[in-house]
Structures are given as structure tokens and as C-alpha cells.
Structures
1.
Amino acid sequence: MKNRFQIAVFHGDGIGPEIMKPTQAILSHLEKRTDAYSLTFDVAPAGAAHYAETGESLPQSSLDKARNADAILLSAMGLPSIRYEDGTEISPQIELRKALDLFAGVRPVRIYKGLHSPLSLKDHDHIDFVLIRESTEGLFFSQGAGEVTNDEATEVLKITRKTSEKLFRFAFELANLRKRSGEGRGHVTCVDKANVFRAFAFFRELFNEEAVKHPQLTFDHAYVDATALWMVQKPWIFDVMVTENMFGDILSDLGAGLMGGLGLAPSADMGEHHAVFQPCHGSAPDIAGNNIANPFAMILSAAMMLDWLGQKHHNSTMVEDGKHLRQAVYDVVNEGTQTTADLGGNASTDEACSAVVKALQA
Ligand code: NAD
Ligand code: MN
């Protein structure tokens, strides 16, 4: 059983380092109080500011650190003011997805007490589902290579058997894990548009091929438009949802909206061998440098990392620590006095992090 883990850390741009440093401190606090595992952090320079300084956005040495690490913790990257010559932004987080074949974008949507959800929920309504967004193909396949003439524009949507098989296996395995831990009921929904597009009929067929291999789990299909409706009207019906890249891009923001915004939305980009954990929000340059950024999406992403590493290496202490950390954030949000301005409070980033450490000790 492995219990020493190397974490590659990308501090990122804007508020990135402000929320990463205290998150790292919280992780150190957790690992120092147990012998069950240890973490070492290996800082990997990358991002827009790094590009402005050195002409490189993701140096080979940083990519190597990511590749060799047990997990990758990444804060927001990119700055609108710093761009490549073609006008596009520096986004090493997207390069990492490609380089490490991180095909599954995992976006948990949990609604708990204290969140400013726009849904009006009754006490017994339990909303806890995970959206899996395919992250390497779909409508993003032709990103940057679409064809535009004076009269028309064409982009290509690509669904491959190879990636879809990996994606659906991942989705059913996650549903199985959630069922075993009591977080979900073991149900997977394939979100597509198979009524209109042949590519999505193919997507659905591949989903069904995987589904029959898991008799202990249940499954169904939903069209993406109806899914958007149901996420608002009856989100408690979902457990694990799996979908194409563009659909997932849109639905995951809807999911964040249900939680009251991006400030509490963690994510993981996973492949078969690597995983990047990062908040869903960007580098928030408008508030950077003021110690007022909300660190909770970053901390919740770190909790996902502990959970994932613990599951993968059969380290139950790590899994428990992941759960405790998540609960500590929920407690602080619910209590309400130590939250940052975006959540209606007036705590600084550091104060919000201290409150999480206190909740961990309680
Ligand atoms: P953004 O998420 O950075 O900011 C949108 C709004 O939300 C801003 O008003 C910001 O102040 C606020 N906000 C975001 N995170 C917050 C936090 N933790 N606490 C409090 N307020 C927060 O999105 P944007 O303005 O579109 O993008 C800014 C930069 O971030 C761009 O360069 C963009 O490319 C990059 N970006 C990176 C990622 C990533 O690293 N995964 C994701 C999205 C955007
Ligand atoms: Mn998006």
C-alpha cells in the first residue's frame, strides 16, 4: 500500500496563488496529523504570467512534473491581458488535458445548507449528482481548425469508440463507487441528442454496450434539452450523468448555477493514469491581490483529490480526510460568518481558510 504521494502544484495566475497557498497549508495540516499518508508538493511553474516572463506557457519540466506526480493540483490560470500572437489566451490547463489524455471532466453538483441556491428546496430534497463531461473530442474536436469562408462556417463534432468506451467505463465505475459509499444510488444517465444526430445515436449505442456489463447498476438516457429542464425542475433524479464535451460545458455551468455560482464548484479532469484537480472558476483578475478571493472551490477540489488518491490506493484515512475537508467547508458556508464577499460575507481569503481549519479541528 502506497502512502507517500507527490503532488504537482500549479499556482496559476491572478487569484490562483492566493487560494492555492492556504489550500496547500490545509493539506499539510491534515497529513501532519496522521501516519497513514504523507504529501510532498512539487511546484510547477506555468501560466500567463510565466509566459510573459519567459516566453513559455507550459515548460517541458513542468509537464514532466505533472506526468510523474501522483496527482495534480491546479489553481486558475490565464489572464485576459496576456495573449499569444494569434490573440488566443494562455491556457496550460487545456494543454494538460490533451497531453495527459484527461478525457473525463468530473463536476459534482451538491446542494447543502447555507448555499444560495436559486432552487427553492424542501428539507428532504437531496441533490447530489456528478456530471461527467467528455473533455477531448465532441464539438471541441475541431477547436482552432474550423473552416470559415465568406459564406459559411463549418466545425466538426467527433465521437470515437476508443474515447467513448473509456468514458462510459469511467462513468459506471464512478456510479459503483458512489453506490458503495452511500453517496448515490448507482444510476447512470447518458445525456445526448440521439433523436437528431447519428453521432449521438452511436454515442448512445456505445453507452448501452457498457451499461449491460453492470447488472448491479441502473441506467437511462435523456436528451440534453430535457436534461437542462430537469436539472432545474427535479435535479434529485440524477446520480451520475455522462455527456459530450459541448453539452457538458453548458450543463456544468448550469450545475454551478444551481449551487449559487462558481465560487463553490470544484472539478477534476481525469484520465486512466492522471488527474488534475482545480476549481471551475477562472483567475478573477478583477479582484486579484486583495486577499478577498473565495478559496472554497479550490479547497473542495483538494478534497476531491484526497478522496481520489485514497480510493485508488486503498487508503481509508485519506478518503476520510477528503470527506472531513469537504464537510468543514460546508460547515463554514452554513455557519455563514466567515465567508468571502461573493458568498455574502466579509471575511478575507485567509480568514475563510482559518475557519475551515477550525472546523476540521472541531
Ligand atoms: P473568472 O471565473 O475568473 O471570473 C468571473 C467573475 O467571477 C469575476 O467577477 C471574478 O471576480 C469572480 N470570481 C471568480 N472566481 C472567484 C473566487 N474564487 N472568489 C471570488 N470571486 C470570484 O472568469 P473570467 O473573468 O471569464 O476569466 C478570467 C481569466 O481566467 C481569463 O484569463 C480566463 O481565460 C481564465 N479562466 C481560467 C480557467 C481555468 O483555469 N480553468 C477557467 C475560466 C477562465
Ligand atoms: Mn465552460
2.
Amino acid sequence: MFLTGKTALVTGSTSGIGHSIADALAQEGANIVMTGIGDEAEIEKTRAKMAQDHGVEVAFVPADLTAREGTEALIEAARTRFDAVDILVNNAGMQHVAPIDEFPPEKWDSIIALNLTAAFDACRLCVPMMKARGWGRIINTASAHSLAASPYKSAYVAAKHALAGLTKTVALELAQDNITANCISPGYVWTPLVENQIPDTMKARKLSREEVIENVLLSGQPTKKFTQPEDIGALAVFLCRDAAQNMTGGNISMDGGWTAQ
Ligand code: NAD
């Protein structure tokens, strides 16, 4: 329970990877600020289970992070409830699959806002709290798409490459403040975000569902396996340990060998 007394804010923690990261940090004793969008009753079940399983406080703060005011209100709510954010996990993200000449500009705007700008704002607002307590961890869920592109994902690939650049810059600025900043870059993880892009990928590439899974999603991953959300949670826990105190500015791949090729 090496994180007892610390507070972790994990964006997009009502589902998928963010939920696994929050659960893993709670297991080590961190209080959790959970945030995301979805069915309130389902979210309350998830929140209560995490709190009960690990004996920590878990506060759900609803926030639409495509708007700057949403991020600002979220950080303020975390500060009011727990006095500090010691661990910031910028994880909330969305995807849209379409050829560049058909890509809806409003989708571009919302993907950049959620996958990139919200992380900038959250860092900007949480770093003073970390500096005040002399310790901090910033963990950004980037993607293999922060290192390599795929067709039809212009906004997502642009946002994730930029998120990796933001992470490096923040790491350098905080290098002597006992605050680290790193990206975790998964390949494909079986979550709603991946499942929901299958119909558009079928349309864009004229493939069946099975062909999308085998020939698109897993084709680039030499292990031919999806990354497990729990494994990403375990990596986030490691990044909070003292053993990771000199790991900063990194972009750590968990992508079945995708970007090794
Ligand atoms: P998910 O769809 O399961 O979860 C996304 C989370 O973001 C949810 O909690 C959702 O409520 C939240 N969210 C969505 N729109 C929001 C908004 N406007 N404001 C606030 N929160 C919002 O997806 P996931 O697969 O767990 O993805 C989490 C992160 O991991 C994303 O940044 C994604 O890009 C990244 N990622 C996913 C994969 C994958 O294969 N699933 C691979 C690499 C990177």
C-alpha cells in the first residue's frame, strides 16, 4: 500500500484502460478521483466497488473534457475534495475513423480537445499542487499511434504524437522537482474505444468484422494478442514507485511489438 495518503486523478476512468489504471492505483492505497461520461447508475456501481475493494476514497466527478471549463472544474473539484493531486493520469480519449477528405472538422476539434488539450490543461493546473508537496507523477495514456501512423485516423494520430511531445517537454521542465512525466503507449487493447471503431473501419476499408480484427487491428502486432487493461494498470503503478524516480520523458510501449518493426 505504498500510495496510501496520495490522491490519483485518472481521466476516463469510468471505463477501459483508465478504469484499470485507477483500480491498480487504488489497490496500492491511493484515493481516486474518477471521471468520465456514461450511465450514472453504472458509474456509481463502479465507484462504490473500487472504494469497497480497496478501502480507499473514490470520488466521481462528471466532466466533459472537450471543453476547457470542464477540465478546470474537474481539477478544482479534486483540490476541494482531497487538497491535492499527486498522481495525474491523462487517459480520456476518443477516436474517429474516416478518410482525410471526409473527416468531419468538428470530430477533429473534439479529438484534439479531449486527447491533447485536456492533458495540457490538467498538467498546467496540477503541477503547482505537486510542486507544493515535493512529489508528483504524470502518466499520459498515449498510444502506438504516438509513434506510428495508420490511415484514416488523422486527428487521433496527430493528437497522440503531440501528447508524446507535451510529455517530454513537461518532463524536462520538472526534471529537478521530483515529478516525473511519462507516456504509456499501448497497441490495441480490447475496450469500448476499439470495439466502437470496428463498424467505421469495416466501411472505410470494405472489410468484414472478422477481417478488421485479424487484418487491421492485430495485423501490426507481432504477438497477435490484444494488450490487457490490467497490464497497463500494473505499469502505471510501477511508474509511481521510487524505482521509477529517474524514469521521465519516456514513451513506454506495450504494443505486442508493433512499433519495434
Ligand atoms: P474507453 O472508450 O473504454 O474509455 C474512454 C474514457 O474516456 C471513458 O471513461 C469515457 O467516459 C471518457 N471520455 C470519453 N469522452 C469524454 C469526454 N468528452 N470528456 C471526458 N471523458 C470522456 O477507451 P479506452 O480504450 O480505455 O481508451 C483510453 C485511452 O487509451 C484513450 O486515450 C485511448 O486513446 C488510449 N488507447 C487505447 C487503445 C485501445 O486499443 N483501446 C490503444 C492505445 C491507446
